[in-house]
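Invent a record, attention on tokens:
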Amino acid sequence: MTKALISIDYTYDFVADDGKLTAGKPAQAIEEAIAAITQKAYGDGDYIFFAIDGHDEGDEFHPETKLFPPHNIKGTSGRDLYGKLADVYEKIKDNSRVFWMDKRHYSAFSGTDLDIRLRERRVTTVVLTGVLTDICVLHTAIDAYNLGYDIEIPAAAVASLTKENHQFALGHFQNVLGAKVIE
């Protein structure tokens, strides 16, 4: 079984107190876990994909424009990885198993070549970390399920805007997508 960790949107705009679309304290609370899990995946020889939201400033045609304030604007510090995950990334980013991938939609698979890259590397299991549990992580998990990947979700390395939304998504991963939620 070949694994790939997909680290989703753990950026300043989604995590910092003054981020443009922040989950705040719940997202900050997973900082240690997400950094440790990423470091472990690297040490285990897994592939690591940083799937990061990237929006164009003033893009009035993007559907999120009607739903959320502008966030993760290309060329801004809002797209920088947050905290200890940024430190881990700096240490591993030049490795051939580590990839940065801009994404435009909730799912890391939508409009990207993620599926092709995973299949080229014979990845069968994806491990999803990051934010927001009930939006980008969930949509990525649904696409992974539909594409036939086994899915693992470390519960300590995902966060959402509300506890209710977070719990809903964890249940959906396990009960509807057959994902392994690791407590």
Notes: The mean pLDDT is 95. The longest helix spans residues 133-146. The domain at 3-182 is CATH 3.40.50.850 (Rossmann fold). The radius of gyration is 15 Å.
